[in-house]
Amino acid sequence: MNTLERVLIEKAGRENGWENVIESHEHALIVASARHQAQATLSSDDTAGSLYLQLSSPLIHKELLRSFNGIVCEQNIIIVPAIELLSRLLRRAAELAQSLPDQAVRTYAVRVKEELKNVLPGSTEVERLVRQRVGQDTFREVLLDYWAGSCAVTGIDLPEILRASHAKPWANCDNDEERLDVFNGFLLSANLDALFDRGLISFDTAGRLLCSPKLAPQQISSLQLHDDLALRWLAPEHEHYLDWHRTKVYQTTTDV
Fold first, then answer.
1. Mean pLDDT across the stretch 174-178?
2. Domain with CATH 3.90.1150 in the chain
3. Which of 40, 9, 1, 96 lies closest to 31 in space, CA to CA?
4. Which of 133, 194, 217, 233 gives 20 to 30 Å between its CA and that of 75?
5. Is the pLDDT at 49 greater than 90, yes or no?
6. CATH number 3.90.1150 is the correct assignment for the domain at 3-97
């Protein structure tokens, strides 16, 4: 790795969510961030003229490949032909690192501890409300990161109308890990969020939209719930929560 390459690679990392160089070797850099737990190894091959990216988290690696179709990967090392692509990969990897696999729980714990400093001892209801508010804010942030700021179905990227929708609702979760699991939810536009929350829509095992029998054909048409609507992608980790939603929330009959 020559001096110019090193400078460009460090710059790409610093500007795209990997601001700390924690190790520097002749042919590689290991970078990290104070905002998440992941690390990335960046290297180059003077002969081939390629750059290489390897991530410490297999889950982030898998999700990153899902986001970039056609990327060449050999033995868990992503081959990057240009610095511009490296910047895009690092930016997306940082977004994923801030939501996977348990970053939300870590962030939530720190924020709750700070917020509760101002709550009087014994204020049980106030503490509950603080925990719920902080949890919902944190959950929204990780969904925005995971879905790259766009609706999980339509791809619309207007944050003002996007909602963090739980598949297994907050009140039904067994612990904070479930409540804040990025796979226990979808970033949806407001109309889809309302329908999903009330069990009037769900998604099948392939991510295709399901419309409840409670919705009349005219309502389905007016809501523009087309047959080809589906989640932009569906990870295996989503299925446990979606199964819960289809079983416990989704309304499968016209009964009131």
1. 93
2. 3-97
3. 40
4. 233
5. no
6. yes
